[in-house]
Amino acid sequence: MPRNAQFQPDREPLQNHPSLELQRSQVTGPLHFLNPTRARYRPAPASTPSEHDAADQPVKPETKVTTQPAYTEHLWRSRDNRKGRHALRVDYQVAEQNAGNTLPPPTSSLRPVLQGILRMATCVPYWDVSYLVAVTFTLGSAIWIINAFFAWQPLVEPSTEFAGESLVGGGVTGFIGATVFEIGSVLLLLEAVNANQTGCFGWALETELTKVNGEVSHTVTAEAKPINDECQHHHANKRNLVGAGKLEARRRSFSVEGYSTVSTDGRSFRWVPSVSELRKHYLRELGFLASLIQFFAASIFWIAGLTGLPGIIDHMSQGLTDGIYWVPQIVGGVGFIISGLLFTIETQKKWYQPAFHILGWHIGAWNFIGGIGFTLCGALGPASSVSGVEYQATLATFWGSWAFMIGSTIQWYESLSKYPVEKKRMVVADPKNGN
Predict the structure, then answer these.
(1) Would 256 be classed as within a structural domain?
(2) Are the C-beta atoms of 295 and 186 separated by less than 8 Å?
(3) Helix residue ranges per DSSP H, 124-216
(4) For the residues of 218-250, what is the DSSP string, one character each?
(5) What's the number of domains the chain is made of?
(6) What pLDDT, in 10s, does the model give residues 174-230?
């Protein structure tokens, strides 16, 4: 059986949720040699008393037995798990046949989308690393847009140029933007190594079967509501960045098992995974690989930000400029392309099948486009003494920065949408496609 079709025994999510049953035929991932990136859970069959047992019990006017509704499914996705999101899929056609349902609407409908946009303006969960990742990259993208204006605007409207616009304005904003991207990449990598491996359902789902005069009435009253207090993801803990624990007393360990901070309530924050974990799990985890490549790309790209500062770049020869300014932009840009592509593939059922309905897919796609823009700028840079080439190089930074801004803004929205609800789509049954 390929690696993407089964969880490793110690890595299967939601093992401690007896109310959920893993549909093993739905465990899958886009690349057969890497870990699964998606799975589907259905409510476990509820145990109900037999007729013989019921006859031995005194008849009560009304008895309620609580089980989970059969028309809801939990969608486990590796990206959602990293981001602290709890995806629920609802078959509304079946649910509408039962009276008294209290089910949330699909989060892709107008009202939840507007509420999500409002949350972006009113909610600041600074303790949530996923939120910090999104906001950091949004800030970095905004700085790069300003940088592109400093470099591109004088070529479009020479009359608007002021002293030091390209050298000082462009150099300083480029360094700040590269530094912010580096910080965001570090947070992204920490998020990846601290993903909740046990999984977290995050929803309270109930169906009440009412027994009146000794006979069961099949009127179903279903309810689905988030239970944030019981969430095991990092965002539920407001005292630590990546959910290291609610108590302040901690112990630290640094050994071959990696470096981690462990709280007295059992939660831990891992700074460095062990060599064994890297080899057996993380290097087979698509999201971790994308985050790692993003980190290396941002680190290399930061060299270009440093050497682009005034006082450095204007004192270098053309050959030195090409080697330590333009080449790091090319290498870093290629890394951004690969990282964005891997983040996109992670959300897909198959490596070639786009997942337009998933926010993470659009985030990866826009970052992929942004990486192309930054790479083009670096590739055209050595020939920038030609006016037309310089124009295209600075323009590539401009539209590449806007692509990163769009992707980061969507990621900001995603980081605040912890309980996405999807409407079950009617498709042709395929036991391996995850539908």
Answers:
(1) no
(2) yes
(3) 129-156, 171-193
(4) EEEEEEEEE-GGG--SGGG-SSSTT---SSS-E
(5) 2
(6) 999 999 999 999 999 999 988 766 666 655 555 544 444 455 444 444 555 666 665
